[in-house]
Amino acid sequence: MAGINRKTIWLAVFVLLAATVLSACTRSGAQLGESSPGSSDTKSEGGGEKISLRLAVWGAPDEVKPYKIAIEKFEKEHPNIKVELQHIAADYDTKLTTMVAGNDVPDVAMMESGSIAYPLAEQGKFYNLQDFLSKDTDINADSLVPNITYSLEKGNVIGIAPGPETFGLFYNEDAFKDAGVEPPPSKVADAWTWDEFVDVAKQLTLDKEGRNAADPNFDPKNIKQYGINLPSWWASYSNFVYSNGGDFISEDGKTFALNQPEAVEALQNLADLVNVHHVAPSPVQSKNIPATHVALQTKKVAMAIDGQWVSSSLAQSKFNFNVGVLPVMKEPQTTVVCAMFSMFKSTKHPEESWELIKALIDPESSIDMLTAGTWMPAELDWYTDQALLDRWTKDLPARPSGYQDAIIDVLLNHSHQTPTGYVKNFNKIMDVVTPALDKVWLGQQSAQEAMDSIADKAQAQVQGRRD
Amino acid sequence: MRKSLFYGLLFTSPAILGFVIFTLGPMIASLVLSFTDYSVFKERTSFIGFDNYVRMFSGADDYFYPSLGATFYFVVLRVPAVIILSFLIALLLNMNVKGRAFFRTVVYLPSIVPAVASAMIWMWLLNPDLGLVNTMLNAVGLPGSLWLYGESSVVPAVVLTSLWGIGGTVIIFLAGLSGIPRQYYEAIEVDGGGWFSKLRHITIPLVSPTIFFNAIMTIIGSIQVFNEAYILTQGGPNNKSLFYVFYLWRTGFRDTEMGYASALAWVLFLIILFFTFFVFRTSKSWVYYEGEGR
Amino acid sequence: MRTSKLSLTFGYIMLALITVLFIGPFLWLIRSSLMDLSQIFTMPPEWIPRPVHWDNFSRAMTVLPFGTYFTNTLIITVAVMVGTVLSSSVAAFGFSRVEWPGRNIVFAILMSAMMLPGAVTLIPSFLGWQALGFYDTFYPLIVPAYFGGGIFNIFLLRQFYLTIPRDFDEAAFVDGASYFRIYLSIIFPLSRSAIIVVALFCFLASWNDFMGPLIYLKSEDLFTLALGLQMFQGTYTAQWDLLMAASAVVVLPCVVVFLVGQKYFLEGITLTGLKG
Q: Which residues in chain B come in under a pLDDT of 70?
């Protein structure tokens, strides 16, 4: 066989290549071995000596940029402290869990109330930030926007958010002009009742022939433009549950409450938008498609109930959008959702970590995200001091004319904490509730039937309240 | 045939060592943890005997049986679809056509494109109101479907989306097909046999080891379906796509019940082991190895 | 071999259909990488970027240290590919061409590695590597490739080795060849198609691996492209334009490698079967 020699040479080259690559990566590995074996946060315990803090965050580059700015400023003010930013791009909880398992824990970490923040807090992994808040001279509970701290129980604050997020009724101004309908009011005092809202939504829902949903000949099978999207995410519909006087669990924390009349009515009203009034499309729950700005821009929907963060993508979409106040069922309410910064108990430098958290929530660092529309500031002065308020709301495409009344005023005066912040075992309860609600949105069951059918299972997961 | 334990072990020793060093330890660890209430964040872990397994089978876990059901439905639909489709596509790609390299690459492209990009396009295609698929169905007078949002349609819809990723299976088939000596086909042609005769008497028997491989791998991979639920459906609607490994992951990482998740994993291990063993057993009757004297 | 006109025409029609069905995600990716955010999500989708945003690429490449990520990814990928091809082909030889007692049982035990969901072995594996002092290095990502390279690849090659007629080995034995000689001069060359497949899969899997680097790496200067891609996804919205541009850049080498690689098993083995 003449081929043998050639093949052997070929193989030898192969082996040689392997050896080269291996030694190359051994070198790079060795270099690294020197710099970071084990924990990196303790260099020395001495007073003025170098301190190193590690901060774990997630986010897109534009979201992480404010943290980088904050860190830069922080390091300038504290020359003896070095902050190492650990950017965990995705599967944050998985990564953080393995880090905790391996005792490789950051000093400060961004956390999410709906995932592993509370499981960690329950095992005593976080500092009580209340202790810091009460003795701090710069910020305290009253200088922060309402509902942006998370507590394990009363008086035990496990995290502070870099800013709140609330909900509003975003709409396409042109769709209203086309239909000759008054756009949504922005002031709470003028807010639509639910029935008024449904009437308007009907006038804005058009079939292929251009007839609206109030027309007796309206064809619900061929809808071109819907009046409103369906807020089928728990945070979105919580606005209406609260507005109607309902809650996820009872005030004493003992009973599952989504099957109570107030909550059921709110949920049924929402489902009726799809199945009775035909003014909202069937549920499309997706975390991948930022549907709102597309849907509004293309007039697939005329109005959309969504978080204020959509302002930024709406502004980029370059069409005439505005925001009104959510329709009110009984009381005006908006739910505040937000991530938080928590401090791990294992940190060697709690005081410095606290200063870092303060630097991170300073709106000054995140001004780009504020003007872009994605975030809102955490500190109250930025809402009450006109000069500061102007900096992130005046003459900006992401802050339309209705913004101050519909979003800011509602946040300051009519906001409600997110259920993840006070309902114990929230995820497990929602594991039972969400599938049942799928049937409600699809019109296969009434809200009452669906909630009653799972009440016992949900009740079994109820473990009380944190507030 | 010479028998040599020494050479056998010599050639396989890196793989055996690798298994013992890198895989066996974590496997045993998870087996041990499956008898505990291990949670990563808790300081104390205690042995609780078979409690985790009792919880699973006694019906105390509302999601165990539904997730098994969803997974089996997925496997039953997907495995035959993947094997048959990818085999047919491989046959097409093995034809002597112009632009073969192009077509082969095209079939493999969806396997390379990041999952989020693919997910985006599926979300649009299968959107009940705005999607292309329903629009086209309506255009020819057929009723649309809720696809990913319907309880009865979600698993078939997920199977459909996953079929885009059959490029790997196709490529393995292609490699198998390329090993068939042309003379065999010529022999059939001499005997006057047609296309079907070639397929039945030459192609299928000679690629049966590849079919066998793809079948085993598709079964193992499909039973462990995760990404589709993670990216596309989050288990909904009404838990109809709550696939087993997705549920297991949720239990272990979101709910931080790693002990119970480990028990779930070992039950699945036994299920996969059973099916793999079963297919291996049947293989004696239909897989033909030229390297084994008959 | 003769292929009739009719079946060739039929073949082309089917291939055209398949192309339409399979090229979607790639076109979607490419066109999105050249669009601004608002156009990406237009309904119904548009396929022609207007205006063409070449700047997405420059922005995506500057926002993250792509050069570093690329180098890291290349080192890991090449190392893994070489290791896997070497060690899995050797192991597969031991599991198919050498007869030894316990062979099938050992093989079955190795197969079991694939049957346990990775979610529950993730933490123990991590703790193991950490205990060895290899957290935040490339070792956990590369070393296993040199120890078998994964049972998937071993199994795949075993299946191909088993199709090679026994007479070849027997004849070589008579000539006094050793097992190594048989592996090098008969089995390895005759299974070129399968080995190319293993190398390709290995390249693509390693290139696109996200979970491994996520868990085992900490320092940003060791990050890989797959990790970098995830960084464009934010809490409330993703920077889709940049994500798509960056994805296109990451995918491109895969397409090239695939195009080149598949050429080598085009030829296949045509006559060898009867020559030995």
A: 1-2, 129-130, 292-294
Contact B234 A97 (CB under 8 A): no
The number of C-beta contacts closer than 8 angstroms across A and C is 150
CA–CA separation, B175 and A457 (whole Å): 52
Give tens-digit pLDDT for A63-82: 888 999 999 999 999 999 99
Residue A132 structure tokens:
């810091």
The 3-state DSSP class for residue C233 equals: strand
**Neighbors of chain C by Cβ distance (3+ pairs < 8 Å):** A, B
Minimum Cα–Cα distance from B43: chain A residue: A123
Are C242 and C56 within 8 A, CB to CB? yes
Taking the CB of residue C3, how many other CB atoms lie within 10 A of it? 12
Instruction: Tell me how far apart the alpha carbons of residues B190 and B178 are, in angstroms, rounded to a whole number.
Output: 21
Contact with chain A for residue B151, Cβ under 8 A: yes
Query: Tokens 């929230």 identify what position?
Result: A426
Name A336's bridge partners: A417
User: In one letter, which amino acid is A291?
Assistant: A
**CB-facing half-sphere around the CA of A229: CA atoms within 13 A:** 29
pLDDT at residue C269 is higher than 80: no
Interface test with A, best of C75, C87, C134, C218 (most A CBs within 10 A): C218
The Cα A105–Cα A119 span in angstroms is 15
State which amino acid sits at residue C33: S
List Cβ neighbours of B212 (8 Å cut-off, separation of 6 or more).
B279, B283, B286, B287, C159
CA atoms within 13 A on the CB side of A430: 21
CA–CA min distance B89, chain A (Å): 31
pLDDT above 90: percentage of residues in chain C: 49
Place of tokens 């370059």: A318
- C20 CB burial (10 A radius; 0-12, 13-18, 19+): exposed
DSSP assignments along A239-284, one per residue = HHHHHTT--SB-TTS-SB-TTSHHHHHHHHHHHHHHHTS--SPPP-
Radius of gyration of chain C (CA): 23
CB B105 within 8 Å of CB B170: no
Is the Cα torsion angle A276, A282, A283, A289 positive or negative in sign?
Answer: negative
Backbone angles phi, psi at C179, to 5 degrees: -60, -40
Instruction: Considering only residues C39 and C43, tell me which one the structure prediction assigns the higher pLDDT.
Output: C39
What is the DSSP code (8-state) at residue C138? S
Q: Using alpha carbons, select from C192, C92, C209 the residue that is nearest to residue C152.
A: C92
CA distance B123 to B132: 10
The token pair that represents B125 in the structure block: 């295609």
**DSSP code, position B199:** I
CB environment B260-282: b (16+ within 10 A), e (fewer): bbbbbbbbbbebbbebbeeeeee
pTM for the whole structure:
0.89
Tokens of A116: 């592993």
Mean pLDDT of C170-193: 85
The dihedral built from the CA positions of residue C162, C163, C166 and C172, taken in this order, carries a sign that is negative
User: What is the strand order of the sheet A156-160 is part of?
Assistant: A81-87, A51-57, A108-111, A340-343, A156-160, A149-153
Nearest to A339 among C188, C214, C235 (CB): C235
Q: In this complex, which of B39, B62, B128 lies closest to A457 when CB atoms are compared?
A: B62
pLDDT digits (tens, 9 = 90+) for C203-240: 999 999 999 999 999 998 999 999 988 888 777 666 78
Rounded-to-integer distance, Cα B231 and Cα C130, Å: 30
Give residue B8's Cα distance to chain centre. 30
Please provide the DSSP assignment of A386-412 as one string.
HHHHHHHHTT-TTS-TTHIIIIIIHHH
pLDDT value of position A294:
78
